[in-house]
């Protein structure tokens, strides 16, 4: 990644303006192994953060290397642009990803995102990053085939960089402040772009109050994906009912109003809604309403299952999600009547204290 | 790698991705031998059913003549607001934090 200019700069200036501690190792040792030994990785190899790579990464932002981005939990350690760049190098980012990564950090540090809790929870969650606007195309992000999977550098490395910053700058490591019972592969990275190729679809960023054409990142506390399969429903109403059957199972079928959710709607499933003339708002509303069930079926102990709601709610009609806690985004390859469900963190039972956060990429 | 082991020219350098901070070990405060005459703070961390647990503790302490005060975080997902922590420090001698979900 670093060109001749960065190599010469690193060699001749000694990169004296970089503030991070320099760690020397014998030239014959393997720098990738040094990074493992120092505990700097998520378990996969990282790109060794050499001066020339860090200098090249810092060229991806006009912001000054010593500027403080914020305090990273759990240790609430101050994080500079330079430390972001070092971790971005390690994660495999290119310099042009820096504005997206910086917006993601800014979003993650909003108190209502609750990054400390997301890290510390026994649940499966970590930051899920959804990118909107022209920046996604500019840096080559994937919103199509395998959007939630491997194989795209920007998708993979931006999400990974945020998690490495929590690990390395914030000190958040599994078994220490990270108490996740089982974890999830999405704790390595889960970052994708929304498919905005169909003008009938209102992008997530616009739904969340940003002008069309604005580049944004939206951070959600979740994990996944979980599969949703319906290859036979052909009407919007049938598909909605079908979705609801899967959505009510998130966490547990008798667990309600405890987590938010992101539904990743595939092109073939969206085509059914589009044909019926349903827009984002109508789909989200219909999905919310389709998950409302009689409380009597959900009471703790019913069907011989301990999990459930208090008996005092037996007479209510109970929605699976709090109002406004179901977000739909569009992504995926053209073929496949499959969509994905990204379940949110259980702390979403308090939808005021815990919210997704959207920030403009500047 | 100790820099004294070889000259700088023989070393390759990486930049530290961590916050370059060190953990400080602090000795725990010695717990009081008795709660007689002390005020006990009962701190609800905001987890489901914490209140049930602390209600019971409060009741048992009242039976033993121990003075209690209640505090709460708005949600278990976040650290306690600074003003709540300050109140606890000012108003009680001992604090009990618990949950029961």
Give your account of this protein's structure.
The complex is a heterodimer of chains A (about 350) and B (about 100). With about 350 residues, chain A is α+β, with helices and mostly antiparallel strands. The mean pLDDT of chain A is about 95. Helix content of chain A is about 30%, strand content about 15%. In chain A, the strands form four sheets. Chain A has a four-stranded mixed β-sheet with strand order 5-4-6-13. With about 100 residues, chain B is an alpha/beta fold. Chain B is built from two helices and four strands. Chain B is elongated, with a radius of gyration of 23 Å. At the A-B interface, strand 1, helix 2, strand 3 and helix 4 of A face strand 1 of B.
Keywords, separated by commas or semicolons:
heterodimer; A: 362 residues; alpha+beta; 4-stranded mixed β-sheet; 16% strand; B: 101 residues; 3-stranded parallel β-sheet; 4 strands
What structural category arises from helix and sheet content of chain A? alpha+beta
Biggest β-sheet description of chain B: 3 strands, parallel
Q: Taking all residues together, what is the mean pLDDT of chain B?
A: 86
Order of strands, widest sheet of chain B: 3-2-4
- The proportion of residues forming helix of chain A, as a percent range, comes to 25-40%
What is the arithmetic mean of pLDDT of chain A? 96
Domain module count of chain A: 2
Cα separation of the termini of chain A: 23 Å
């Amino acid at each position: 990644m670093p060109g001749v200019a960065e190599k010469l700069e690193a060699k001749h200036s000694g990169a004296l303006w970089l503030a991070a501690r320099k760690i020397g190792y014998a030239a014959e040792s393997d720098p990738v192994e040094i990074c493992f030994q120092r505990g700097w990785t998520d378990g996969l190899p990282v790109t060794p953060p050499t001066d020339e790579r860090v200098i090249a990464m810092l060229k991806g932002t006009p912001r000054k290397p010593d500027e403080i981005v914020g305090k990273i939990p759990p240790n609430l350690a101050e994080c500079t642009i330079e430390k972001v760049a070092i971790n971005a190098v390690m994660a495999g980012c290119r310099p042009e990803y820096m504005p997206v990564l910086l917006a993601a950090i800014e979003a993650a540090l909003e108190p209502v995102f609750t990054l400390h809790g997301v890290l510390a929870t026994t649940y499966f969650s970590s930051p899920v990053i959804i990118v909107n606007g022209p920046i996604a195309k500019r840096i080559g992000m994937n919103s199509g085939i395998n959007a939630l999977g491997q194989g795209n550098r920007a998708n993979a490395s931006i999400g990974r960089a945020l998690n490495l910053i929590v690990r390395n700058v914030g000190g958040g490591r599994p078994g220490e402040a990270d108490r996740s019972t089982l974890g999830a592969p999405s704790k390595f990275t889960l970052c994708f772009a929304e498919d905005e190729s169909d003008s009938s679809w209102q992008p997530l960023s616009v739904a969340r109050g940003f002008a069309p054409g604005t580049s944004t990142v939206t951070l959600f506390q979740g994990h996944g994906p979980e599969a949703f399969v319906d290859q036979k429903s052909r009407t919007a109403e049938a598909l909605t009912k079908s979705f609801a059957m899967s959505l009510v199972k998130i966490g547990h079928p008798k667990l309600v109003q405890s987590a938010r959710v992101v539904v990743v709607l595939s092109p073939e499933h969206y085509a059914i809604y589009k044909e019926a003339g349903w827009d984002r708002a109508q789909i989200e509303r219909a999905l919310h309403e389709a998950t409302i069930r009689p409380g009597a079926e959900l009471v703790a102990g019913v069907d011989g299952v301990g999990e459930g709601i208090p008996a005092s709610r037996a007479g209510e009609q109970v929605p699976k999600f709090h109002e406004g806690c179901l977000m739909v985004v569009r992504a995926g390859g053209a073929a496949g009547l499959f969509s994905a469900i990204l379940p949110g963190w259980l702390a979403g039972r308090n939808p005021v204290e815990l919210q997704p956060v959207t920030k403009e990429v500047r | 790698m100790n820099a004294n082991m070889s000259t700088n020219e023989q070393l390759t350098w990486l930049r530290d991705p961590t916050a370059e901070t060190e953990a400080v070990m602090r000795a725990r405060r010695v717990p009081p031998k008795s709660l007689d005459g002390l005020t006990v703070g009962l701190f609800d961390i905001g987890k489901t059913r914490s209140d049930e647990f602390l209600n019971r503790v409060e009741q048992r302490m009242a039976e033993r003549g121990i003075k209690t005060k209640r505090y709460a975080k708005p949600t278990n997902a976040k650290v306690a607001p600074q003003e709540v922590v300050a109140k606890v420090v000012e108003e009680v001698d001992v604090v009990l934090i618990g949950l029961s979900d």
